[in-house]
């Protein structure tokens, strides 16, 4: 019997987020990290910082107009008297001051508040006063997809619009380093395109093949690469077998490297809205990890973004001590 058109579907039990829960649990077990929070002037961004602080993950330094931050705290019923607050006149000054706190060593993490991402990244990438390194700055979505067995990294869906081969080399290396830094092991990296064969008519297939050769020659390290791979071949073992693809990556990918920002953004949002996935966001390649959260993010996603950044900052600190 067909269901009535106006019948409401039965309420589905919300999926568990084992991947995020594991990351948050691990971040709670390490030392809290000093975090410059740039312009937390709405309830959502301020609550994200407070919740991460209450979980013992970060020690927030609130940077922005004092009156606006206190108004946001009053709106969400939060007591911020225990946190350091640095007063600035506006969002641009807040971004600049937050970056300065990182440069001076007072903060090990940078967290976006209620200002625009472009405004914060402008200060991060400033030539003389920013946080640039020799590595290209890129973004990674760490996604908890209920139907997929691994935490799924998607890069780059937020910073580099049409990256060339040189930029993609850094994008891939940033994601691999993050995967290793989170203790998730040597990642299987799928370089995505529309097809799994190399064809000059689709430039992303040529770049995918080049990236794999670069990994063979030691220009990209720490991961197992394969590409070009279409999305189905990257994440479905059955699809890979039907196509006759045999590699350690096909059907088992943990990092998906997209051809450009448009493809990555659509892929991440498809997973979020059609597959009920959560998408924690972090920017890499600067002197410190940068936590990017959205007003639409759930509490769990904001906490996961903080957890990823805290664990990675801790791994970087430990690596420096060893070196």
Explained architecture:
It is globular, with a radius of gyration of 20 Å. The protein has helices at 18-28, 43-54, 66-75, 91-103, 117-124, 165-181, 203-216, 231-235, 237-242, 261-274, 299-322, and strands at residues 33-38, 58-64, 84-87, 109-112, 138-144, 152-155, 188-192, 224-229, 255-257, 278-284, 290-291. It has an eleven-stranded mixed β-sheet with strand order 3-2-1-4-11-10-5-6-9-7-8, sandwiched between helices. Residues 1-14 have low confidence and may be disordered. The protein has two domains: 17-132 and 286-315, Rossmann fold, CATH 3.40.50.10950; 134-285, Isopropylmalate Dehydrogenase (3-Layer(aba) Sandwich). With 323 residues, it is of the alpha/beta class. The longest helix is centred in the C-terminal third of the chain and has 24 residues, at 299-322.
Annotate the secondary structure layout.
Blueprint: H1 18-28, E1 33-38, H2 43-54, E2 58-64, H3 66-75, E3 84-87, H4 91-103, E4 109-112, H5 117-124, E5 138-144, E6 152-155, H6 165-181, E7 188-192, H7 203-216, E8 224-229, H8 231-235, H9 237-242, E9 255-257, H10 261-274, E10 278-284, E11 290-291, H11 299-322
Parallel strand pairs: 1-2, 1-4, 2-3, 4-11, 6-9, 7-8, 7-9
Antiparallel strand pairs: 5-6, 5-10, 10-11
Order of helices and strands: HEHEHEHEHEEHEHEHHEHEEH
Classify the helix fraction into a percent range: 40-55%
Q: Describe the global form.
A: globular
Q: What order do the strands of the largest sheet run in, or round the barrel if closed?
A: 3-2-1-4-11-10-5-6-9-7-8
Strand content: 15-25%
Number of strands: 11
The low-pLDDT segments are 1-14
Q: Classify the secondary structure makeup into a structural class.
A: alpha/beta
The first-level CATH class name of the largest domain: Alpha Beta
- Kindly report the name of the CATH homologous superfamily of the largest domain: Isopropylmalate Dehydrogenase
CATH topology heading of the largest domain: Isopropylmalate Dehydrogenase
Radius of gyration: 20 Å
CA distance, first residue to last residue:
68 Å
